[in-house]
Amino acid sequence: MKTLAVLLGLGFVVGCASPAPAVDGGVVDDIARNGMWVAIPGGACNARERSVEVQPSPHVEPDAGAIAYLTNPPASGPHYPVWTRWGVWPDVPRGYWVHNLEHGGVVFLYRCATGDCNAARDALGRAAARIPEDVTCAFSAASPVRTRVVVTSDREIDTEVAGAAWGWLYAADCADAPSMQSFYARHARMATEDVCADGAFP
After folding, report:
1. Which of 69, 82, 143, 159 has a CA between 20 and 30 Å from the CA of residue 75?
2. Could you please report the per-residue DSSP string of 4-63?
3. Looking at the structure, do residues 180 and 101 belong to the same domain, yes or no?
4. Domain total in the chain
């Protein structure tokens, strides 16, 4: 009964557009795993995360037409055979970086519909650079990758900053290094493939 009261209370708080409850390893963490937005502790910028359904993820060719994803941004789904090189890039099409998610990577996105996007890209790139080295990749002969992160722009997201790992979404109102580090630490390397090798696009 106590758990039900907690859940009802959380539902009321979230329903009233108050800040999402924080991930705490208990009941609230379970809620995040069940698809509700949950605040990331220690973060700013209204940083939050939620789990989402993993959809079938076959390879499709870049000229095959638009890809239908279940979420915005996608956290799985059809993707191109070639994946993105880890790092900060402008305007990488989703079909490339969704492949990075399948390799256990994390993608952070900034919204920049018009004008000079350098400031938004640089802020998110600086925040991503603070993510500690991926020790799994440090011992990989395939590629001297520091972290499995892609930062790029995405005009379709509906928040200033968004992100994805395999089966998980991230959202924030600005670039926030602590919450990005937390998201990476808990959701990188959790996909169907564990690949450190760099991609070939762009």
Report:
1. 143
2. HHHHHHHHHHHHTTPPPPBP-SSHHHHHHHTT--EEPTT--TT-EEEE-PPPP--B--GG
3. yes
4. 2
